[in-house]
Amino acid sequence: MIETAILLSAGRGSRLLPLTAERPKCLIEFNGRSLIGWQIEMLARAGVRRIEVVTGFETDMVEDHLAAITDPRVEIATHFNPFFQVADNLGSCWIVRDLMAEGDFLILNGDTLVSQAIVERVVQDNDWPIAVTVDIKDGYDSDDMKVERTGERLVRIGKTLTAEQANAESIGFLAFRGEGADLFREAVRKAMRTPEGVNHWYLKVIDTLADTGKVGTVSIAGEEWAEVDFLNDVENATELTGRWDAGS
Prior knowledge:
By secondary structure, the chain is an alpha/beta fold. The chain has 7 helices and 13 strands. The protein has helices at about 35-45, 60-65, 90-95, 115-125, 180-190, 200-210, 230-245, and strands at about 5-10, 30, 35, 50-55, 75-80, 105-110, 110-115, 130-135, 145-150, 155-160, 170-175, 215-220, 225. Strands 1, 4, 5, 6, 8, 9, 10, 11 and 12 form a 9-stranded mixed sheet that branches. A two-stranded antiparallel ribbon has the order 2-3. Helix 5 packs across helix 6. It is globular. The two termini are about 25 Å apart. The model has no long low-confidence stretch (mean pLDDT about 95).
């Protein structure tokens, strides 16, 4: 059972303008609760107790919002990424790299809504030091974070995978256990020492670790989740959280 989650919530979400003109996308509201509020709720329902949030755009606003969440099930801490405007989310991972030495943890993208059932599946023990949560569908577009896998083993991950390679999609939710946490932390450290490090997604690092044989996948096909990246995603997320709200 993993009890710590890292939320990568430093970005503004410029593709969601004008909704993000004065607030980051993690604070967009769906059925009376912010996006990050829904993330915290589902993580807490599944037994996650410690939530570490990497902030960036309008950090004071996010910190105030999180400080107002009084939930006895979880402890919430924030970590400011001062170069969020010039670095991709690998930089946010670098900001909290020391936390990764403290034990097993989850990473959840700041724009991904996941159900309680998904979290429960991901936190359950498995044999993979690094486990990438994936969905399965009939086809994948250019914006999907595509995955090639053999059985449960991840072979490659990236947006540029061909249609022939791609047989799954990463939803932006990962689990790190045992040596997987150390492997990832060291890979992040090395990548951020290179000139191109600030331009990389953290999943680029996962791709480089695939050849170790330590990276697997967890399928959540059939479960409910949503990515809030474009304006047309807002309606889907509203419908999804509406069902969660009705069922709570």
